[in-house]
Each structure stands twice: as structure tokens, then as C-alpha cells.
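Progress report, Aim 2. The chain analyzed during this reporting quarter is listed below.
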Amino acid sequence: MDDTSATAKVKTVASLPIMPLFGLLKLEVPAAFREAAENGVAQTKDACEKARAATEQASDLIEETYAIAVKGAVDYNLKVFAAARAGVYAAFDFAGALVSVTSLSEAVALTTAHARKQLEAVTEQTKELAAAAQKLGIDTAEPIKTGLAEAFSKIA
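Predicted C-alpha cells for the chain:
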């Protein structure tokens, strides 16, 4: 057998003095190093706790904002449906009244009155829808604004 065989390598490694290697395990870690490591672990735990709290707060904020947005969208859509319903009823009333006219001048007066009334109704409905949309935007943005301010103040 030659010296490059696996058995020869195992015998060489086995003949190395092992006892001096165990002396490395008994080295004393300096107190400053140990204290710095403990401080690092404590700071990391604190940062993780703050991040967890901020994540929970953000999740709650998203849920609250979503609920407000859904409610606002429902309110807005109800106003749209009410406006559409009012327009349909007005059209049917106009058609019923138009059938009973007896002269052209009466038809023109009825049409003019209906057009004026519809223009006023659409103007009022537009104001209501604009106010509802603005309220929806403000109500949805408010929790985000306050929630983010609180979250950043806790992290800082």
C-alpha cells in the first residue's frame, strides 16, 4: 500500500494531537463583546416587536379603511340609483302629461317646464353626488392619514 491511500490519510489525521484543540473552547469571551452581543439581541428583539406592532396596526388600518370605503361607495351608489329613479319617474310623468295635451302651445309649455324641472333636478343631484364623492374621499383618507402618523411615531 502507498502513503496516498485512504487508510494512510486516516492514520495521519488520527495521529494529530487533539488535546491542544480543546484549549480553544475554553477561551474567555471578553465582557464588552458579550455585552455588545446582548445589546444587539435586545435591540433586534425590540425592533422586531415594533415591526410586528406596526404590521398589526397597518392591517387594522387597511380593514377600517376598506370598511369605510365600502360604506361610502354604497351610499354614493344609492344616491346614483335615487337620481336615476327620479329621472325615470319624471320621464313617465312627462309622457303621461304629454299624451293629454290638446294643442301645440300646450305641448311646448309642458316640454319647457319639464326641461327646466329636469335641469334643476340634475343640478341638485350633481351637487349631492359631488358632496358624497368628496365625503367618501375624506372619510377614506382620514384613517390612513392618522394611522400612518401613529405608526411612524411609534417606529421613530
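The mean pLDDT is 82. The two ends are 71 Å apart (CA to CA). These observations will guide the mutagenesis work planned for the next reporting period.
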